[in-house]
Amino acid sequence: MNKKLQDALEVVDTTYFDIVDIANGAVKPITQEVDDLVKTINLTVNSLSIDQIRDYILRLQLKAFELSEIKEKSALKAELAEALQKEKYAVRFNALEGSAAVKDKLAIVETAPEVVSEAFYNLIANLFKTKLDQIHRLVDALKSILMSRMQETKFMNIGIDNSIPATTNGKVNL
């Protein structure tokens, strides 16, 4: 592999891991309770009672309510980072001397930290969005499980209830 390419890939990896580590550190305290709920549900899903499923649905919906505001604020922060990056680029571009192409390249270099900042805040906003989307999908899955369990319980109770007439060959036996 070309040495310059290898060096460039290493810089990308280093920057990526630094940004992801910082983003995870910012997001994790806010989503930790949801992550713990999901882990518990995953371990016990086959043995959950109807009431437990209802409780998890409610708890997840309440966390989704909290996260939805945080997600929107994160999206705003990402938009602000983008606007500030574009502003700095325009200011630097206009202050530089030379052809448009030279000014463009120099302005890009001088706004690199803002570009990385924008990417960082986009990552955080997207992590919250993804977490919120997955909570909604999990709630839907739990609703399906709940309906299935309730249907099973209903059928089991019908079979146990002797007051319901039995049928043979499509005819009711009294």
Written description of the protein model:
The chain is mainly α and 174 residues long. The chain has one domain (3-149). The chain is 85% helix and 3% strand. It has helices spanning 3-44, 50-95, 100-110, 112-160; strands spanning 166-168, 171-173. Strands 1-2 form a two-stranded antiparallel sheet. Helix 1 runs antiparallel to helix 2, helix 1 runs parallel beside helix 4 (112-160) and helix 2 runs antiparallel to helix 4 (112-160). The mean pLDDT is 90.
Oligomer: single chain
Number of helices in the DSSP assignment: 4
Helix content: over 70%
Task: Name the helix and strand elements from N-terminus to C-terminus, one letter apiece.
Answer: HHHHEE
Rg:
28 Å
Number of strands: 2
Strand content: under 5%
Question: What global shape is seen?
Answer: elongated
Notable traits:
2 strands, 4 helices, 174 residues, elongated, mainly alpha
Q: What's the helix and strand layout?
A:
Elements lengths: L2 H42 L5 H46 L4 H11 L1 H49 L5 E3 L2 E3 L1
Antiparallel strand pairs: 1-2
Short description:
The protein is mainly alpha-helical. The protein has helices spanning about 5-45, 50-95, 100-110, 110-160; strands at about 165-170, 170-174.
